[in-house]
Design a protein that fits this description.
Blueprint: E1 11-12, E2 26-30, E3 39-45, E4 50-51, H1 58-70, E5 80-84, E6 93-100, H2 107-120, E7 128-132, H3 141-153, E8 168-172, H4 176-201, H5 209-217, E9 225-229, H6 231-236, H7 240-246, E10 254-261, E11 268-272, E12 274-278, H8 299-313, E13 319-329, E14 341-343, E15 349-351, H9 359-374, E16 378-383, H10 387-393, E17 397-402, H11 405-418, E18 421-424, H12 429-433, E19 442-443, H13 452-464, E20 469-473, E21 479-480, E22 490-491, H14 496-504
Helix pairs in contact: 2-3, 3-4, 4-8, 7-9, 8-14, 9-13, 11-14
Amino acid sequence: MKNKHQFMLSVMALACLNSLNANAETFSFDTRNSLNSDTLVLFQSADATTYGIDVLPQSTQDQLNLATADNSFSGKQGEILEILVPSEIDAKRVLLVGIGDAKNLTPGDINTLGGNIAAKLETVPQATVRVLTQGLTTPLFAAELAHGIELRSYRYSQFKANDHAEKNYQIGVDDLSLNQKHHKNLQAVEAGVFLARDLTNAPAGIMYPESFANEARKLKSLGVKVTVLEAKDIERLHLGALAAVGKGSERPPKLVVAHWPGSKDAPIALVGKGITFDSGGYNIKATGTSIARMKSDMAGAATVLGTVKAMAIQKAPVNLVAIMPMAENMVSGHAMIPGDVIKTAQGLTVEVLNTDAEGRLVLADGLWYARENYKPSIIVDVATLTGSKVGALGSVYAGLFTDSEALVQQLTYAGQQVGEKVWRLPLDQAYADELKSTIADLKNTGKEGSAGASSAAMFLKRFAGEQPWAHLDIAGNALTATDTAVVPAGATGYGVRLLSTWLTQPKKN
């Protein structure tokens, strides 16, 4: 509906993977200062400016001011004050949300505000939420707020009843067209995030190399070129590392390629680790319940495929190719065993000292394939690679390894913007020296007790080539056991927002 007073944009959060994501929040942007809603949301900065308060009746303003004083509400970023049954307006509640320094909010900060609002209202049965953002100097505040609400409202509901109380958000804005355009692009990113979450949340019994390849094939409808190399192709191309990791499973390995040809520039290649279940092989994972989480060892592949989907939906002018070596690391009479020597596609031989260090093996062949077949200008690989990274950085930061100062700055900046932070960890020849083997070109593990994340990165560097390359170790970032601001418990889709921002924004050098 459109007239000189109002433009209404109604959108629904995007679902993927056979509509497993049952979230269906609705949003509309308009220029009205209407108060007609079940819940009214206002924002206050640290300087005590309350945006939208002038449209409230004086008695409601007085009630709000009294409540902020009584509750020592300071407008600090993240604070939420709830007032039930406010005076003289029909709303059942008012939420006053602190935004801190309004001039310095990043998109990720605003996403977090939206996620916190969604979390606060999650169990509220009333359906209509009116949000007033007029007067805020951040021009895309409304779109980024909606993005945060949508990210937090995601649900993976294939195996349980959907108990999510759906909401209709009506957001008042100053610049309708700008927020409309930006929100559309953000929804493309959400589609990629939700795909990555769906793929990672799915049990390994239904998400294995072939079913992952089938999900990738669905992107053909968006103009993505999808190629799936089968076991015979892997053998013909001498992808010996990928073949070795996958040979213990009854489900054969695949190499999945998804190419979004959005420009005629040399492509940027993303390589994602795709171990759909990691038993550890003969070095079996036997510590408590950790093995149950190993369905998420394909989160790197999920992230790069989700990023391709995000670029394709918004028709981004980017030439992007995702290479996803997919395998199950299982135990059987055919499986790779400790002490084996395997030959990679690059021709280097690897002495396998630990079958649970398999991710770097499949990435080695993936990196080679990207270089040989696409001659990319940049390669970034993404992997849940090492427990050592978790020990160093936990789950707040991903580990970033690269010799390119430009990539350090660009990826760090992109991560800061969206709240998917990265921290540079060392690449050093000393870690490469740990990989020397007496019977092969290199070993697949470094010294016990050493910096395992760095030695793994140095292993990958042998296969990365001469063009700029970065390795993102997202171990610890791919899953969350508890709800966070923009992620309900489960798979996070970590990296899709970071990479999408990096690919589409001007690079900060």
